[in-house]
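User: Quick sanity check before I run a bigger batch. Here is a single chain. Can you write out its predicted 3D structure?
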Amino acid sequence: MNQVLPIADNRQVLAYAKEIFSRHRWRFLTVIIIHALASVSALAVPYIVGLLVDAVVDGTTRGYVNGAILIVVGAYLLYSFLTREVQLRTRILGEQVFAEIREEFLSSVTSLPLSTVESAGTGDLLSRTTNDVDRIQWVVRFGLPALITSAITIVVTIIMAIIASPLVSLSLLIGIPFITLSAIRYLKRARPTYLWQAQAWAGLNSVVAESVDFVGTIDAMDLGESRRKRMKSIISKDAWDSEVRAAKLRMELFFFLLLGTALPTAVAVVWGAHLISLGSVTIGMVTTVALYTAQLRNPLVEFLMWMDELQVASVSLARIVGVRLVDTDRTPTGAQPEGRDIVALDVTYAYTEGRNVLHGINLDLIPGERLAIVGPSGAGKSTFGRMLAGIHPPTGGSVTVGGVPLVDLTEDELRKEVALVTQEHHVFVGTLAHNLRLAKHDATDGELEQALRSVDALGWVQELENGLETEVGSGAKTLTPAQAQQLALARLVLLDPHTVVLDEATSLIDPRSARSLEASLSAVLSGRTVVAIAHRLYTAHDADRVAVIEDGLISELGTHDELVAAGGAYAKLWETWHRER
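Assistant: Done. Predicted structure follows.
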């Protein structure tokens, strides 16, 4: 699988984890201290039981037994209180950590260069925003408390066992080879296995997302069987094999883990009996250590179980942190444009290195003019439009506004200068007002209505029961493609840049309504520079100038009448289009 979005290495993931820890250092330390106190209070019980056994063997009083019972009850009450307190604190800490990871990831995703997003495709990015975030959420919310609890319990248990009897606690050593060797083998193979698994799911998600997004096309062209075969191929080739390898990895780990935790208890009893016969230890000491070794099993199993989940989460975190590593496609210099003129000078662009789709285009946009770009499919019209809008930096040459290269402006500065609207649109979950205010957060209802009026959308919005407060998007009111496109154009009106690039922005609206809408937009955008990439030639007819792009070059440039009179490529396009009307 081609990997466009980077994946962070272990060093970068560790650095990010340290950064998160440093922000919550004192909360982490507080949680660890309370966990340690809770573990000591619980693990004091086997120690007291051992003392009680020795006391009973040697002969003791009822008062001593009752006192020991009261201490045990008190220890459990203290353990219950501390456990409740630490679980609450740990859960709150986990939520805070996860919220920061999620918000920083969302910020990184929304800051990605559009060229990177388009190159990566939907599958990889979708997998990172769903599967990877969900895995981290699971580990942070539930694994973090469990890991801290089990780790501290293991350490305190071993210490208490050694305090009870250094000799008997030697039985703990028998489990170390099984646990250590299996853990080393597991950790060596876990990351590549889970990385393979994550990439397989990304590929699967890509097929699912594309199939859902273009279900109409798939149905119309009878591609259902082809898509099913594609999905089965990915499942059998990568997804299934990666899941099987991961399952085998876990089974091997937990087999030796169970062996390593069961043996010490048996050895403690046998070894302890031998030491008792030698008079080296008491029955109470053996009882205490045997109880401790038995109690080690649950926290050790839980610890390694969550370590397994942590390995999966670390791969997910590496993929999430990797998004932060994407290089920006622009370097703001702080230079400010002096004027509104946009100039393209010897612009070349290649999606694949060495294969240019634009071949040295030169164009001076006259401030306030309406320029139509026409040409055959695949000629480079949309690509050049993206150059003019600053979406993609050119491979060679430059595009400047007011003498400043577009790539020298920040995203916010760029959008104040020039904006792009394409035939691709998106309706965000929320109200219509919320969707519109994405372009201007402080816009009044009057400004929203004016923007809708300018794109001929106010009528159908007012017919909705809740008007601007109507909930739209997934799970709410579904807008037609034409309505969604009008919403995108209304956002453009609110954004109010001095230069607008429209890439077939009215293609989803019927021709008669589209021409009416474009006339309305022309009135609203009067005084602004408008570049319209047109597939309906009446757009070119109404423009001030027309540029014809063929094979990545501007072959003709002039007014509609001039180009028709010239009898070139545009004249032929116009004649063919006019005849078909």
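The mean pLDDT is 81.

User: Great, the batch can go ahead then.
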